[in-house]
Write a structure and sequence with these properties.
This protein is an alpha+beta fold and 198 residues long. 32% of the residues lie in helices and 30% in strands. The radius of gyration is 16 Å and the shape is globular. It starts with 11 loop residues before the first strand and ends in an 8-residue tail after the last helix.
Length: 198
């Protein structure tokens, strides 16, 4: 899916306020602390609570393996002023229906628009570097902030469905979203700041 350009662990994307870089073993404590926060974990479909350290270590290895193989792109978010300090994760990985966007941000960093910046960066990398045609995403019904973020990033809601996630022990109702290459290209011509303004 992703080209050689992204398959080296020196690859990074810089935005106005963020570095998006490959996650490393040194990020484990930050992932455990931030993603293990109930307020973060419960807004996702896949992060268990409590979050065991062994799962964090396995996630980091799997992310690096997927990045190296080009089967996905998982990037650690860090502020440009502190590039070694992980504050969240954004990823495009293979889903049941094709490439899917996923993300989380540590609670101390909520409300500053950082995840919108990160999602725009990886969305653009997917369409520009990987030549993707469609990118999918989902958001829990009880997570309106995530749904708004996807809509501002150009995604269009296509359906609502219940999905089974083992980490939740039950079905989770989610809104499904998709962004097609043609829509992304049209917005790119407008410019990154105004592309999908609400």
């Amino acid at each position: 899916m992703f080209p050689d350009l992204t398959r080296d662990d020196v690859f990074r994307i810089e935005t106005r306020r963020l570095w998006l870089r490959w996650p490393t073993a040194k990020d484990a404590e930050a992932v455990l602390r931030l993603a293990g926060d109930l307020a973060v974990a419960e807004m996702t479909a896949r992060i268990p609570h409590p979050l065991p350290r062994a799962e964090v270590d396995a996630f980091l290895l799997q992310a690096r393996r997927g990045n190296a193989a080009g089967t996905g792109l998982t990037l650690a978010l860090a502020r440009r002023s502190a590039p070694a300090d992980l504050i969240g994760i954004v990823a495009v990985s293979g889903g049941a229906d094709g490439p899917e966007l996923g993300y989380w941000l540590g609670r101390p960093h909520w409300g500053a628009g950082l995840m919108g910046e990160a999602v725009a960066a990886i969305r653009d990398a997917y369409f520009a570097y990987a030549g993707g045609d469609v990118l999918r995403a989902s958001a829990r019904l009880d997570n309106p902030a995530s749904r708004r973020l996807l809509e501002r990033s150009g995604f269009v809601r296509t359906a609502t469905e219940a999905r089974s996630f083992l980490t939740r022990g039950d079905d989770v109702t989610v809104d499904l979203f998709r962004l097609e290459r043609a829509r992304w290209l049209g917005a790119s011509a407008i410019g990154p700041e105004t592309a999908f303004a609400a």
